[in-house]
Design a protein that fits this description.
Strand content: 15-25%
Structural class: alpha/beta
Order of helices and strands: EEEEEEEEEHEHEHEHEHHEHEHEEEEEE
Number of helices: 8
Largest sheet: 8 strands, mixed
Number of strands: 21
Length: about 350
Amino acid sequence: MHPAQLWKPLPDGRVSCRLCAHFCRIADGDRGLCGVRVNKAGALYTLAYERVAAAHLDPVEKKPLYHFQPGSLAFSIGTMGCNLSCAFCQNYSLSQPPRQGRPVTGERTTPAALVAAAKASGASSIAYTYSEPTVFFELMRDTAALAHEAGLKNIMVSNGFQSAKCLEALDGLIDAANIDLKAMNPDFYERVCGARLRPVLQNLAHMRKLGWWLEVTTLLIPGANDADGELKELAAFLVKELGADTPWHISRFHPDSGMRDTPPTPLSRLERAWEIGREAGLRYVYVGNVADETHSGTICPACGTVVLARSGMGLREARLTQGHCASCGAAIAGVGLP
């Protein structure tokens, strides 16, 4: 076990975890909802600090981040555990077992070893991903600090259900984030994800103020969160609160976990969501988890040229000059554009 951060003791021997928006009150011997933070004799510990359960070298586009160092590689790590219980989780074997009281497993490592591995791999960044990085906050924070010293960027792929104190503690360490905005329906968050919508919306605005490069992903589930009215509300929020240059990734649902009887998202609904995003004023809207590359390229908002063409999970061609469209000279939003 490793001492946890962002908590305070309570008079009755419980602890108040201040890491995420659940604000768990944990009795001695119990774990929080995430399954990886445990109260031992009135002190809070993390079970995930030295237990990396997944580590891979990925194209940054797989996160997905399309406007942050396109064409680069991200050394991607994750531990077990999650603070949400999404019925459609596609990483169930990593995220949910600790919530069921099962052991937290993984390869023993250290922040220094992770940074060394990232450097040796040729990555430009370290991505904290696969499960929910909020629940391995201490490992992420310590690794991120060393990564910056080594010239690497830090990426967080998250459900956005942090506490404000957690975000403030990561200020200056996280460079970019892709955040799941799973729906614009509070009932969906409570019933399907075991969470609440409002903290996610507040945190997205907070991240923008912190200066992180921000992209947003919505997994479109037939009959659950794909109604035109809800998608219009979501796109309007992105434009108003985060800005029209915020990339929105619309991802196709595939049956998994507790929603195996729900069919895959029809291509027509993905295309309609793409249209809604563009009609709302978003300049960069993408469709993912499909073989069709029609909606995966970055289009110049001024002249319509495809300035970043993608194939599969990677960058195929860039038509940019110092971050500007090679055809008309218009600026393309992003960080480290080729």
